[in-house]
Design brief:
With 416 residues, the chain is an alpha+beta fold. The chain contains six helices and 20 strands.
Length: 416
């Protein structure tokens, strides 16, 4: 097993040598008048969150646009921006003079038809006994009967016209359909409404501003990571030093294509008891996909580090001399999976060494060490190199004091 692990390390780093361009020496090797020295980072402990980031506008969870169902001139506006209103409260009134005239006209028409119906019924009642005695023919009785039926229909039509006129008169008083806060007012006294062309939005009422929602556009490549019930955190430009929290309520199925990129709208609910969040603010949202607390972490730069070509050759030759010769483009090494990483360090002889580790959640800058092997908090690993002038006094290269590893490759020291 130990021999196989040695060979695996050798094959992986040998592949890096084949792929690496001709470059400069590292760790005490000269490059013209300069030399390259290792940079080190420290293994620490902390919280790591994997997130998906996007943005979207804040809006009330429930809001209603209030318009007018009848045309006319605005006679009176009773509310203004930010006013609290109750359900059925009058927000504005139209000029009612013409609407009242329509009601009077409908009432007069109904009375006229009612009188005609009464006269027609009297005629029918007179003609019926005469018909039974054979005094008048069937046609006369049938004509009076048809007139009654026709006027009964006219009565219903006139009654409907009266109800319509009365309803329009009621609509002249524009009322709030819900209790809430006026967030939009787009009407002034004297303004004329022509609803036959367009029903305008006069007011927008938000039911409850103590709870808000964010409509976040998430790219199709990330939408699979976002699920209802997930936690989210966000900031707004008005309060850059404050972070707010929310919960994913719904992922809408309707796709939106913007600049050839498919996005999906994600609804995020959040509390606004302090009243700091206002409708229309842009929220920069991070969806928390995974979170680990108080775990060993290492800067991602250390996991991304690859030694220079000459240093790799020296390491592979020391670890397994035949590995470089055996590796060809037709016999490539298998790259580690997303849960495996390699940390490079200097052993107690000052030689380059490497250790395989199991990694977990990453936030882009730090990565969780699920299985750190012999690494412990406070140990240092290599994250890069810096070029220094050999003629100037430089700091001694920092080293991770370690125990000899397999094949002389070295390894990090055991934990306490």
């Amino acid at each position: 097993m130990k021999k196989r692990k040695i060979l695996t390390f050798a094959v992986v780093v040998a592949l890096l040598i084949l792929l690496a361009p001709v470059s400069r020496m590292v760790g005490g090797y000269l490059l013209g008048q300069n030399r390259l020295e290792f940079k080190f980072v420290e293994i620490g402990r902390g919280d790591v969150k994997k997130t998906v980031s996007s943005s979207g506008p804040l809006s009330p969870i429930k809001k209603v646009e209030v318009g007018s169902q009848v045309s006319g001139t605005i006679a009176k506006v009773h509310v203004d921006y930010n006013d609290r209103v109750q359900k059925d409260q009058v927000l504005a009134e139209l000029d009612m003079s013409l609407l009242k005239a329509d009601v009077g006209k409908a009432e007069g028409n109904l009375l006229r038809i009612q009188a005609q119906l009464e006269d027609a019924r009297n005629d029918y009642n007179r003609n019926l006994p005469l018909h039974q005695k054979g005094v008048i023919p069937d046609s006369v009785l049938l004509s009076s009967q048809i007139k009654v039926k026709s006027l009964e229909g006219d009565i219903k039509h006139a009654q409907a016209a009266l109800d319509f006129a009365k309803r329009n008169l009621e609509y002249a008083s524009i009322r709030s359909p819900i209790a809430g806060t006026v967030v939009t007012k787009q009407v002034e006294e004297g303004q004329t409404l022509a609803v036959q062309f367009m029903i305008p939005c006069l007011f927008e009422i938000a039911e409850d501003l103590s709870r808000m929602e964010i409509l976040v556009a998430v790219d199709e490549s990330d939408i699979g990571l976002v699920q209802p019930g997930q936690k989210a955190r966000f900031t707004v430009q008005a309060y850059t030093d404050k972070t707010f929290s929310g919960t994913v309520k719904k992922v809408r199925l309707q796709p939106m294509k913007v600049a050839n990129v498919v996005n999906y709208t994600v609804e995020v609910d959040t509390e606004n008891k302090e009243g700091l969040l206002l409708p229309g603010m842009t929220a920069e949202v991070d969806f928390i996909i995974a979170e680990k607390k108080n775990v060993l972490t290492v800067p991602k730069t250390a996991l991304n580090f690859t030694p220079e070509k000459d240093a790799l050759r020296r390491f592979v030759g020391r670890l397994h001399p035949s590995a470089v010769a055996q590796l060809t483009p037709s016999n490539p090494a298998v790259e580690p999976d997303e849960h495996t990483g390699f940390l490079w360090f200097l052993n107690d002889q000052g030689e380059l060494a490497v250790q395989e580790v199991k990694i977990g959640v990453t936030d882009g800058s730090h990565t969780e060490l699920v299985d750190a092997g012999p690494f412990r908090e406070g140990m240092k690993v290599i994250s890069g190199v810096v070029e220094t002038d050999k003629d100037k006094k430089t700091e001694k290269t920092k080293r991770l004091i370690g125990m000899p590893g397999p094949g002389g490759g070295g390894g990090p020291p055991p934990g306490p």
